[in-house]
Write a structure and sequence with these properties.
Distance between the termini: 55 Å
Oligomer: single chain
Structural class: alpha+beta
Shape: elongated
Helix content: 25-40%
Radius of gyration: 36 Å
Number of domains: 4
Length: 561
């Protein structure tokens, strides 16, 4: 670096150097042991490249160990070479690209319901009075043939007398008509046989249950009149139940009837139910932007009770043979995706990618850019990418001009939004801030992510043409079914810039404060949004205060509407 310091005044040197350092970090290439050294004696912070000192130590901002500042060869080609010792210190890990099946599980939240086909309402086809009630407690088990109540009915007494008289007359046709009358009133044939054999009419009739199940509703009391067609009792067979779940509308096309599914229950940890999809709602709920799907679940032991909260898991087979790459190997800059190939001996080469669908286990389908057998960096690639960018910036300092630093979102005149669209913009920001707070506290907020995905989709579906351009990429960038907290942190890396651009044009209301603050983390090259000045970096909980203000976005005062 000594030649460089003599070429430029001190002030200009630091201004230009910091401009280049804004796009990456500079890593040491010092080898252990004696002999000639390729490194400098200047040390820097991987997360805060503006920090410089003449020896090892810790960063005054984040307390990370400082690393040596590397010498930059003038003739660096497309392949980046880093000292193997430094590569080891960076914790670089690689994975070999393979082919295989790709699957993904769609998740939705819902609740257990009684299966309507297994409900039976007990009603009479003749008027009468409930003389005595035997089915008196909701939830009690009922077997087919159990007496539900004793019924007094003048019409039943007359019908019994006609039956007995027809029997005594020996007229088969008359007897058959008398029996048919009682059968049409829903008396079982065995009871009719018993009444036929009597010498006189029975004053009260024990009314048997036609089905087995649980007494789920009782609408009568002893001594009360029982009107015709009045529902007196409801008996439900719980050996099979429904699970109605709400699926985000962008996932509705992924499911089909008779699909095999699984369900898990907050009240039954470790238990998984097997079922199948029997119904998909034809419309979308306008308030929640979700589609109702229904699964039927066997419930022989009646463990799944109506009203119980559940999560529905729908596995999808996306491809049987695809080139797959771990999600962590893919760097998304917002406008392109790339991966770093490990060529051996400390050499790395960037490779532009075209990726397809994302599956379970953090695997991504590669459509173009990688082939089976390629070795890609899955850990430390952010540091390698930063090193590459810094070297490019240094070459420009040597005569090719300064590398332009990515600016924050342009603050421009706000779009004119209708009150309805303004509410949807506010809903997106409210859900985003809730998700960010959950990540900051290391919480797996499934409901929050579903609310964010739903709010984003609702804004996307109803956006005006100029607003639609700003939100078209957000539904894919914020999936509701992301697997875990770690994956959700990575999800918001590329989404951060998209949200910043959105709110720079479609400003949320001032209910959130005076302005939105866009912050930047140099470690992961990620942006995020806050409503206050205190840095709250949720990408790495070991250094939540690491970050710098990139820009401030004023909130809507109502003038733009």
């Amino acid at each position: 670096m000594r030649w460089f310091r003599t070429a430029l005044p001190a002030t200009a040197f630091f201004v230009l150097l910091f401009s280049a350092a804004g796009v990456g970090y500079w890593f040491g290439t010092q080898r252990a042991g004696g002999g000639a050294s390729k490194s400098t004696s200047v040390f820097t912070c991987s997360m805060h490249p503006q920090v410089r000192q003449d020896g090892p130590g810790t960063c005054p901002i984040c307390r990370m160990e400082l690393v040596p500042l590397a010498s930059v060869p003038k003739d660096s080609g497309p392949a980046l070479t880093i000292d193997p010792v430094v590569v080891q210190n960076m914790g670089v890990r690689v994975a070999t690209i393979a082919r295989g099946p790709l699957s993904r599980t769609v998740h939705a939240f819902g609740a257990v319901r009684e299966a309507q086909a297994r409900q039976r309402d007990i009603a009479l086809k003749i008027p009468g009075f409930v003389h005595k009630l035997h089915a008196h407690t909701e939830g009690m088990a009922i077997s087919k043939g159990d007496v539900l109540f004793d019924l007094y009915s003048a019409e039943l007494i007359v019908a019994q007398e006609e039956l007995i008289a027809a029997r005594k007359s020996g007229d088969a046709e008359l007897l058959g008509a008398a029996r048919q009358k009682l059968l049409l009133w829903d008396l079982p044939a065995s009871l009719v046989d018993e009444l036929q054999a009597r010498e006189r009419a029975q004053q009260t009739i024990p009314w048997p249950s036609p089905v087995s199940g649980r007494l789920m509703r009782r609408d009568i009391v002893e001594g009360a009149p029982a009107m015709m067609n009045q529902s007196l009792l409801r008996i439900v067979d719980l050996s099979e139940v429904w699970l109605d779940a709400q699926l985000p509308e962008h996932e509705a096309g992924s499911v089909r009837l008779d699909m095999e599914v699984e369900a898990s229950f907050a009240a039954l940890p470790g238990r998984v139910a097997q079922g199948r999809i029997v119904y998909i709602a034809p419309g979308v709920d306008e308030a929640t932007r979700t589609v109702t799907v229904r699964a039927v679940l066997p419930n022989a032991d009646e463990a799944y009770r109506p009203g119980m909260f559940a999560r529905l898991h729908m596995p999808l087979s996306l491809a049987t043979d695809s080139v797959l790459v771990p999600m962590e190997a893919v760097l998304d800059t917002g406008d392109r995706q790339l991966a770093w190939l490990a060529l051996g001996d400390g050499k790395f080469e960037p490779r532009a990618l075209r990726v397809g669908r994302t599956g379970d286990g953090g695997m991504v389908e590669v459509l173009d850019g990688l082939k089976e057998g390629d070795r890609v960096v899955v850990s430390g690639q952010l540091l390698i990418d930063a090193e590459s960018q810094l070297r490019e910036g240094t070459r420009k300092l040597q005569g090719e001009g300064l590398l332009h630093k990515s600016p924050g979102p342009a603050v421009r005149e706000p779009l004119r939004l209708t009150p309805e669209i303004q509410q949807r913009v506010d809903a997106v920001l409210s859900a985003y801030l809730a998700v960010a707070d959950a990540l900051l506290h290391d919480k797996d907020d499934d409901d929050g992510w579903l609310r964010l995905a739903t709010a984003v989709q609702a804004l996307h579906d109803d956006a005006s043409p100029e607003l639609h351009e700003l939100v078209h990429g957000l539904p894919k960038a914020v999936p509701a079914d992301t697997a875990d907290v770690a994956t959700r942190r990575k999800t918001l890396i590329p989404a951060g810039r998209l949200f910043a651009e959105l709110f720079a044009a479609a400003r949320p209301s001032k209910t959130f404060g005076a302005s939105l603050i866009v912050l930047h983390c140099p470690m992961v090259e990620a942006d995020w949004l806050q409503t206050d000045e205190q840095v709250k970096n949720f990408f790495d909980l070991s250094m939540t205060s690491c970050g710098e203000v990139k820009s401030r976005l004023p909130l809507d005062t109502g003038a733009g509407r």
